[in-house]
Write a structure and sequence with these properties.
This protein is an all-alpha fold and about 350 residues long. It has one domain. It has 16 helices and no strands.
Length: about 350
């Protein structure tokens, strides 16, 4: 893997790292001093579970600055639309846009326009009778939009613990860099490098509980990576199931959480709760191990992302084999569901024995 990084200018590497390091220090200092964009944990029980510190929601803002400085979206209309997507999440963070339905409607409009003007569509899922319909532009736009919305909102679901969302996409970008040769365009590879270096710095701050992505950051990060991944599949011959594999976790977390909540009489599908997989894993580990606050808040994410990293690495050897990739996806889903119910039962037993 080191060989892939040797082709990148060390000086440019250094500049992007230093720029992001300075941005985090300066912007965090300003936000804390002025008491603006500070995480409101009192409004979210799942955030109180992980931490009680006052933390600036600077990760998404600095990601947006990177998008502008490095021209990640190469025309003004794209930049305006991406800014709008970020603002939806930012307003949601601070209870200025609380309705999930309104947020979803606004996201849908923005993503449809972005997909249409950039002509990035999912045109094949490897099933002939479905692909016939996906070759029709309208259906392809709607399907692509649906996929991106699932990813965006699923990424927001998993962003409930330090390193969870950011660490996941760090792993995804690592794998995309690993398979770069003759697959990614130079422009997309440059974007991935910028995101990768940004995430490296953000993860350091997030580990020590000094910065959060916020809804705006998770929306923005997941959209950019998802957009590049779909574009990658449309311009190469790799299996669409490789893209499904590397993006499976946020999407499945979204689907599973909605399904779980619709079967529950205590929680509405659009309400947050403390029964996501990473919350249960956090409770389990916290009951079994004596760890520092930083380690205990990050350990579930590290375990989840290490598992995904191993699966993605295996999948990178089967880029063109849909059957083998589907098997890997099924393994991921089986492990998730099995561990989820095991953790749920264990945590409930421990609570009942207190």
């Amino acid at each position: 893997m080191i060989n892939y990084f040797l082709n990148i200018s060390i000086f440019n590497y250094f500049l992007v790292l230093v720029l992001n390091l300075l941005l985090f220090y300066v912007i965090n200092f300003i936000l804390v001093k002025k008491n603006i964009l500070i995480d409101l944990k009192k409004t979210s029980s799942h955030k109180q579970l992980i931490n009680t510190d006052l933390v600036p929601v600077s990760g998404g803002l600095i990601l947006l600055i990177n998008c502008i400085i490095f021209n990640i979206f190469d025309n003004l209309l794209n930049q305006v639309l991406v800014l709008s997507l970020f603002l939806i999440g930012l307003f949601a963070d601070f209870q200025k846009l609380e309705s999930p339905i309104k947020r979803l409607m606004m996201q849908t409009i923005i993503v449809v326009v972005l997909v249409k003007i950039n002509q990035v569509f999912v045109r094949s899922i490897g099933i002939p009778f479905v692909d016939i319909y996906l070759n029709q532009e309208l259906i392809s736009i709607l399907f692509t939009t649906f996929c991106l919305l699932i990813l965006i909102n699923g990424s927001n679901f998993i962003d409930g613990a330090n390193l969870q969302c950011s660490g996941y996409y760090f792993v995804v970008l690592t794998i995309l860099i690993y398979i770069k040769s003759n697959i990614l365009s130079n422009h997309d590879f440059e974007i991935i490098k910028v995101l990768y270096l940004y995430l490296f710095i953000f993860i350091l701050f997030n580990f020590f509980n000094k910065s959060y992505l916020g809804d705006g950051g998770s929306y923005l990060l997941s959209f950019i990576v998802g957009f590049i991944a779909i574009k990658l599949q449309t311009i190469t011959y790799i299996s669409p199931y490789f893209i499904v594999l590397v993006l499976w976790y946020p999407a499945f977390e979204n689907f599973f959480s909605i399904l779980r909540k619709t079967r529950s009489t205590n929680t509405k599908a659009d309400q947050p709760d403390l029964l996501h997989f990473h919350h249960l894993l956090f409770k389990f580990l916290n009951n079994k191990l004596i760890l520092s606050k930083n380690i205990s808040s990050c350990l579930p994410s590290i375990i989840i992302n290490l598992f995904n990293g191993v699966i993605f690495y295996i999948g990178s050897y089967f880029l063109y084999s849909s059957i083998k990739l589907i098997v890997l996806i099924m393994i991921c889903v089986t492990v998730y569901v099995s561990l989820y119910f095991l953790l749920l039962r264990t945590v409930k037993l421990e609570i009942n024995n207190i």
